[in-house]
Amino acid sequence: MLLAASTATATTTSVVFWVLAIVSVAAALGMILSPRVVHCAVLLAIVMLSLAVLYLTAGAPFLAAVQIIVYTGAVLMLFLFVLMIVGVSSADSLRETIRGQRLWAGLAAIALLVLLTLVVGHAVIGPAAPAFPSYGAGNVTSIATLIFTRYFFPFEVTSALLITAALGAMVLAHRERTSPKPTQRELSRQRVAGAHPTPLPGPGTYARHNAVDFPALLPDGTPSALSVSPVVHGRPGAREAVSEALREASGALPAGPEGADQSESPPQPGPTGVGQPAYSAGEDANGNGQNGGRS
Amino acid sequence: MSPGHYVALAVILFVIGAVGVLIRRNAMVIFMCIELMLNAVNLAFVAFARQHGQVDGQVIAFFVMVVAAAEVVVGLAILMAIFRARRSASVDDANLLKY
To answer: Which of A32, A129, A154 sits opposite B51 (nearest CB)?
Structure first.
């Protein structure tokens, strides 16, 4: 009975190991091959979560919790914060700048793999030790005992390291202001003197699929490229989508009288979109009127 | 699963991280690859702790995590300072010391 139970546990552990091994290696490969940094961060999160579950199966529940809290929770969120500051649109081009870099990197990787395989293969890695009390519920207790007895000095040095890292991050990320802070009067003057005293138009007034990458229509019926965020413009597949949307929106101008009909009969929802009457009810009075007079 | 399987997985992940450091040029991705290598080493530590039936390896992996967290904080701060000065996160652009 006990033997059967332990065999079933071993089978479960091996299934979990193989699934997570494949998932983590695939995610790691995707991480080094994906050109977009956000995808890299998400794939790295997958690798770290799989490693946390592997720690659980290897008898380290405390490390699994720390892995999820510190790595997936704190470190990856820090990565994503810095990524938002640096700019999501900063895609890494995978073009080689050094000739033969890929080739030599591949050769070095194969050499490293062979070296590590030889070293690990020469080392005698026997079967796992029989179940030890410190792998059950006493895992946290035994880790705490070790940290506060044998590894007490490294633990204290760690606190000094953490304080130094916090200070270093503050010093490095701090920026000294070289010009005086603009007052509210200066800001308002600057705004009125600029090209756009009013807020920029919001995107997606005539949207059908995704409102963010669809330009708004100005009161005279022309689509406004200003209403689409430059980040959306910069995305590799979205540039064509935005230009196509601009073309479609300008081509849809002869459909203006239909919109006027809709605004005249608001109880019937238009076939083109749900949010359209709400916009056209307010804006068609001058917008399509100008269109009709012009065309 | 024997600890050898875990060590083999750790070796593969470490090599993937090393290749990423070699072929990528975005500093953020290079940092992520370094994190991947540190995670692989942690997995090897845990596997060896399992093999010997002692938790010393888990304590070392814990210390590695602490040092990695500190490294990420300082490294990302340096990255932000470089980005502020050069408007780029590519390691090819930080070449002032080259000439």
So the answer is: A129
